[in-house]
Specification:
The chain has helices spanning 15-19, 71-85, 90-101, and strands at residues 11-12, 45-48, 62-64. It has 103 residues and is an alpha+beta fold. It has one domain (7-97). It has a three-stranded antiparallel sheet with strand order 1-2-3, with no helix packed on it. Helix 2 packs across helix 3. Bound molecules: zinc ion (ZN). The site of zinc ion has 8 residues, from strand 3.
Length: 103
């Protein structure tokens, strides 16, 4: 699969993307938004944000249209998630932690 999503521009999620079952950073391997945890479906718009150059952000998440913003906004959101969930972060953090700790 051509990895043209690394140009950090919005792209159309294709069935081939969704079919990949081992996306890094996602415990269940699904392609998920790194901020809200939503699993992408074919036809969605997604964007990949490089963040590994920012201290304490990390993750290089995919983001959905609803969560997308500037790199600074995304990094701040990732930092907030790390504070809230400690070592659980990114996709694991918000998505799974909410499920685990829901009462
Ligand atoms: Zn999202």
């Amino acid at each position: 699969m051509a990895a043209d999503w690394t140009n950090q521009k919005p792209f159309l999620v294709k069935q081939a993307h969704v079919a990949v079952k081992h996306w890094g950073g996602s415990r269940d391997g699904k392609m998920r938004c790194g901020l809200c945890g939503e699993a992408f479906a074919a036809g969605d718009t997604a964007r990949w944000q490089f963040t590994n150059d920012i201290p304490d952000a990390g993750g290089n998440p995919f983001v959905c249209v609803a969560c997308d913003g500037t790199k600074e906004q995304i990094c701040e959101e990732l930092r907030t998630m790390r504070r809230e969930y400690g070592r659980l972060k990114g996709i694991l953090g918000r998505h799974l932690a909410d499920e685990l700790w829901e009462v």
